[in-house]
Every structure is written in C-alpha cells, then in structure tokens.
Amino acid sequence: MFLLAAFCAVLLGVPVFAEDNEPEPSVYLFSYFRGNGESGLHLAYSYDGLKWAPLKKEQSFLKPEIGSKLMRDPSIVQGPDGTFHMVWTTGWWDNGIGIAHSKDLIDWSEQTFLAVMEHEPTARNCWAPEIYYDAKTKTYLICWATTIPGRFPQTEHPSDDNNHRMYYVATKDFKTYTDTALFYEPGFNVIDTFIVRDDKNDRYAMFLKNETKYPKAEKNIRVAFAEKAAGPYGPASEPITGDYWAEGPAALKVGDRWIVYFDKYTQGRYGAVASTDLKKWEDISDKVEFPRGARHGTAFAVAPSVLEKLKLVRPD
User: Fold this and answer.
1) C-alpha to C-alpha distance for 175 and 253, rounded to whole angstroms
2) Domains in the chain, ordered, with CATH?
3) Which of 111, 32, 101 is nearest to 73 (CA)?
4) Among the ranges given (22-26, 295-299, 312-316), the one the predictor scored with the smallest mean pLDDT
5) What is the spatial distance between Cα 31 and Cα 104, in angstroms, rounded to a whole number?
6) In 10 A of CB 191, how many CB atoms?
7) pLDDT surpasses 60 at 30
8) Global pTM?
9) Residue 216 scores a pLDDT above 60
C-alpha cells in the first residue's frame, strides 16, 4: 500500500514520506523576477540551498497578462494535492494582485486579478503578496502590503508617500475569499512578510521588512512569532540583517538550519543569513550564489521529479 501511495505522490510532485515518517530528500526551487517584472516568472534550483542555477537558460516560464502587466515578487506554495499556487505584484499602483495555478510550474492556469483593495478608494498599492498554506486549518493565507493615506498617521512622514501595513485574505478553494482584513501592525512601515512553520517550538515565524525611511532609515529584515499561522504575531525582533538595505525575505529549512534569503537591492545582489534556533543569526551572504539580476522571490522544497521535468523545458 505504501509503495502505491508513494508512486502516486511522485507523479504529483508531492514530497514522499517513508513509513518511519522520514521525508524523501528534496531539492529546492527559487521563484524570482528580473528588471521591473515585465518578463514574468523565472525559476532557479539548488541542491544545497546555497548555489542557485537558473532554469530554461534564464528565460521566463510565465509572462504577465493582467493588471499593469508586471509579475514582480512571485510567491509560490505547493498545496497538499500537489498543485502549485502563485501570487504576485501586478503593478506599482494596482488595487489588487495576480494569482495562477499549475501542476508542474510549466503549464499554468488562466491568470486572475484579485482586487483585494478595491473597497478602499484611497489605497495606493498592493505590494509583494505572499501565499502560505496553513495545514492545521487547511486554508491558504495571502498577505500583502498596502498604503492607505491617513490610516496610520503616527508613522507618516512628509518626505515619504508610503506608509504600509500588512493585509490579508484567506481561502480554501480559490473561489471564495474572506473579506480583506488588517494582518500585521507593528507600529512601523512594514512590507514583505514571509511565514514558516517552526515545528521545533510549535509556533509560526514571520519574517518581514521594516520599510521605515524617515527620520532614520531602517530597511532591514526582522522576525515575529505567533501560535497560529494567521496570528496575532508579536512584536518584531531586532534586525537579523546587517548594515545594508535588504528586502524580500524568503526562508528555507535546509538540514538543521534556517536560511533567510533577501534582496540587497541597492547592491544588485542577493544575501542571506542562517540560524539553527531563529535567535542567533550568521550572515552567509558570501556563501550564496544566485542567477544574475534575480529579484525578490520565494524559496521552496519540491520532489526531485518536479525539478527533472523543469530541466527538460527548452528555451524559446
């Protein structure tokens, strides 16, 4: 019976678990964009979480067709049935986000524009959506950053038009969604959240960017914790990144340590920090290699069969 279940799981590209609950070795994928996001979804792969190589000779796997026709900040999660779900930023000043689905990351469904902030007429944007599957509630959480002028006056600054907070919707079937609600208000301008399950401590960790620019620039990555995936999350930690501007955190468990990748966007390169306990962090930026021009994306584990099929895709 186990062999039959394992065979079916491999066909779907779902990580296989042996009878002793030890997972089959995974490989890692990284979804990212280049330039302004006009070329669409790009993918890279890694066997160790450090050296990342581009697939399809750096060409796009999916071109944007909705909103302002950009595909920035692609966030991908694989559901329990093996289907991949992706959300992304469709434009700088759109009132919604993009969403699409795929069984293999090659052939994609029709792209859908989800107008998550259309009920807020002054909402300035919808940036860097992230999708997370909460296995405990069998629900997908979709979070993003939006500025609504005047909503949080205590952190507004006359020299900065943006004053973001995190909002979210939830869905079980991608047909019906909860009403948009505030997800995280840390008391500062915040964007770019990324949620992971910390099994060791029976909690959830959410990495985020402090986007504060004035009166003192922060532009760093921090982490907050919660008992439930949907929160509420506690206060953000002190910065886990160094004396440089960083954004777009993406966390991946490789062996016994967490690696958090981020875009050193003022330097035109990727960086990373690592930790075994989510408390003490080591900067390993000099140990990671990413495809040239890679920008804000998502790292995730997949079954080897998924990668092998992606490697067969020929450039246009």
Assistant:
1) 31
2) 29-245+286-311 (2.115.10.20)
3) 32
4) 22-26
5) 13
6) 22
7) yes
8) 0.92
9) yes
